[in-house]
Amino acid sequence: MVLIKKNIIFSDVNKLRGVGKQLSKYLKIKRIEKVKDLLLNLPYSETDRSKITDLDKLEIGKIHTIRVKIKKIYFPRIRNLPNKILCENATGKIEIIYFNSREGYLRKLYKIGEIVIISGKVSYFNKNYQITNPDYVTPLEKENYVKQKIPKYSLTKGINEKKYRAISEQILNNLPDVEDWHDIHFLKKNNFFNWKENIISLHKTKEGQNNRSQSYKRLVFDEICANFLVLSKSRKKIKSRKKNKLFKSILSNKIINQLPFTLTTSQKKVFNEINLDLKSKTRMFRIIQGDVGSGKTIVSLLAVANAIEDNYQCAIMAPTEILAKQHFELSKKIFMNTNLKIEFLTGKTENSKRRKIISDLENGNINLIIGTHSLFQKKIKFMNLGLAIIDEQHKFGVRQRSELAKKGGANCDVLLMSATPIPRTMIMSLYGDMDISKITEKPKNRKKIITLSKPEKKINELWLFLKKQIDNDNQIFWVCPLIEDSVHLDFSSVKKKYELINKKFPNKVGFIHGALNKDEKEIILKRFFKKEIYILVTTTVIEVGIDFPNANLIVIENANKFGLAQLHQLRGRVGRGNKQGHCILLFKDGLSKKAVKRIKILKESNDGFFIAEKDMELRGFGDIIGFQQSGIKHFRFADPVIHKDLFELAEKYINKEVKNEKKFTFLLKLFDRAEIINQNID
Ligand code: ADP
Ligand code: MG
Questions:
Q1: 353 and 465, same domain (yes or no)
Q2: From the alpha carbon of 292, which atom of ligand 1 is closest?
Q3: Is the C-beta atom of 290 inside 6 A of ligand 1?
Q4: Is there a single domain that holds both residue 348 and residue 468?
Q5: Ligand with the closest atom to the CA of 575
Q6: To which H or E segment does residue 418 belong?
Q7: pLDDT of residue 682
């Protein structure tokens, strides 16, 4: 017996007996590199070899275990004929067949006159029962090794059950005791096994095959805890000491008084939360979550006003040029009667202008810079950046966030804004390191958007509706489906639609797509803004953030291609002023049941958070946009829909236990989180 020590769990799998170079390679395909990966590779089913079957009761095509006497062995001297072993017992006869097996090997395995246990899939050929290449052939005294329900793992070429079992049992049968990171009362209270028992139960009972079993739940809970620990550590690092900002909200109050509307209660509350952060001696790391059109931008600009009052520089970054430009224009308006210097920088800014901006930033001549991600290039240095705002950035991962915070310097507060409402379990696992401010209400003048659906064949019925909208001075977005990986096809689908619609409404239509350059896009958007055109045919480039208060109808083609959350996001582009907004979803063929259900949800609710929950229930969380790119390691076992309760439990638990972080070292290593923590934190 090999001596199994505790640290074997994190050793390379080739430390186990029988694992050489070749096998290591195959195991790697199955993501098994360390011994602990074997433990986390759960069986998906089991093979029942536990009963000895009489030879007159065999079922063809099934796996059986038999106990037989070896009668004769044939090694035919003609090529391509298989080797054959004749076996029998009181209940009948059977042939064991081997292709390509060496004679010496078989003679050792099969000794005439001996009784053996054989297990494998039974077939029938030439009026004989046969087992070809049996899974197990064992002498009688070892029959208990075969006569079992044997866990079935997803394997790959080069590894069969027997081989895999030999290595996995080496560790499972000798699993060292590990000091549990959860205390015994907690385990008892939640009906959890201790770690070792739990792993064994996952492999040796059916618990590992059921993601709601108690053993599985303990595993999931641990995985969530590992994730939350990373976030909480990241938070600790980011929320370091800073100089508190001093301001009396003179400028921001002035702006508020000049707004054509009053802030909603939600907006006020969130602004207040931000102010407290700005004034505090620890850095702000906050995300504003608010549905499309809930008015996040103005709140962030008010925060800018306060930071600037204490002579700090501010930066606003948006994911697209159009959006950045819009923020730029709005800022110029908001800060019109001040002498603040506001600049705009994107990847396309001319070199001479760029050089000037870079030096002005460094000298502190610019108070507010607005741009795309090019704001965070190495070359760009601020004199005293005090507030960095990132709009629509639900795709930022943990690492990028902490990099950003680092870049800003010790006194830089960080504010993120996201209009992608995501379910609570995902908020916890994506933004658990941040403070969260939610804008839950929409401006009062905002009406619920009326959502309708139509089959594409009936597109002609739309023209009258469109005409009425235009007669009422309403503008229209017409969204063509995005054609993956093909700017060219995008262009042609947009162009075609443009031509069709332009025939109906000559000179009132424009189009925009990914292949246009900045200037071309801008010209068209400007024309749309000035109402020189009334219909804008576009791809989903308009999805994020742009604000056209006069757009009141959006038509979305091929709407079944989009998730609920994305449709809601698109729909949020219209009805931002005080007129009634409409959304028409066009579908290719007859609607599937699921599609009908989806439309119903969209028609009934205007609440992005509710829709996000539903979207996740319908599509599963893996499909939720942005999660894959989030940079946060995927959960392997936890599913925010199925294990919602465990996310909630883990949230409370980690808040309490995080002080004792040392005891979680093993856990973090188990789920490959230890490295992420170090990368992030140092
Ligand atoms: P989002 O939260 O999607 O970024 P915006 O900040 O772009 O939303 O705001 C959408 C529109 O609502 C803008 O035209 C803005 O001027 C307007 N708005 C913001 N707050 C209010 C409010 N309290 N009352 C009325 N309109 C508002
Ligand atoms: Mg916005």
A1: no
A2: 3
A3: yes
A4: no
A5: 1
A6: strand 413-418
A7: 34
Rounded to the nearest angstrom, the distance between the alpha carbon of 595 and the centre of ligand 2 is: 28
Residue 94 counted as domain residue: yes
Q: Ligand 1 centroid to 576 CA: how many Å? A: 7
Q: Which ligand is nearest to the CA of 319?
A: 2
The boundaries of the domain holding residue 535 are: 450-605
- pLDDT score of 80: 81
pTM: 0.78
* Residues measured by CB to lie within 5 Å of ligand 2, the ion: 545
Q: Which residue has the tokens 């769990």?
A: 9
| Residue 171: CA count within 13 A, CB half-sphere | 27
pLDDT tens per residue, range 610-662: 888 888 777 766 555 444 444 444 688 998 888 999 999 999 999 888 888 88
What is the H or E stretch that residue 306 is in? helix 296-309
Residues 380, 283 share a domain: yes
Quick check: is 70 in a domain?
A: yes
Distances (CA, A) of 81 to 98, 132, 137, 474: 9, 13, 21, 81
- With a 6 Å cutoff on the Cβ, whether 295 touches ligand 1 is yes
Up-side HSE of residue 467: CA atoms within 13 Å toward CB? 9
| Whether the CB of 549 sits within 6 Å of ligand 1 | yes
379 and 472 assigned to the same domain: no
Whether the CB-CB separation of 148 and 133 falls below 8 Å is answered with no
Atom index in ligand 1 nearest the CA of residue 445 equals 25
198-201 long-range contacts (CB < 8 A, ≥24 apart) are 199/39, 199/172, 199/175, 200/172, 200/175
Which domain CATH number covers 57? 2.40.50.140
- Domain containing residue 657: CATH number: 3.40.50.300
Which amino acid does the sequence have at 658? V
In a domain, 430, yes or no: yes
- In whole angstroms, give the CA distance from residue 316 to residue 330: 12
Number of separate domains in the chain: 3
For the chain, which residues score pLDDT lower than 50?
A: 1-3, 625-633, 680-682
Ligand 2 centroid distance, CA of 318 (Å):
9
Q: Is 608 exposed, middle or buried, given 0-12, 13-18 or 19+ CB atoms closer than 10 A?
A: buried
Whether 296 is in the pocket of ligand 1, judged by its Cβ within 6 Å, is: yes
Distance, CA of 167 to CA of 19 (rounded, Å): 8
Looking at the CA of 300, which ligand is closest?
1
Are 603 and 451 in contact by the 8 Å Cβ rule? The answer is yes
Q: What is the CA radius of gyration of the chain?
A: 33
E-strand stretches of 140-179: 149-152
Q: How far is CA 547 from CA 138, 295, 390, 423, 580, in A?
A: 74, 10, 17, 25, 16
Neighbouring residues of 519: CB distance < 8 A, sequence distance ≥ 6: none
Asked if residue 435 and residue 467 are part of one domain, the reply reads no
* Cα(438) to centroid(ligand 1), Å: 14
Q: How far is the CA of 299 from the centre of ligand 2 (A)?
A: 10
Same-domain status, 347 and 221 = yes
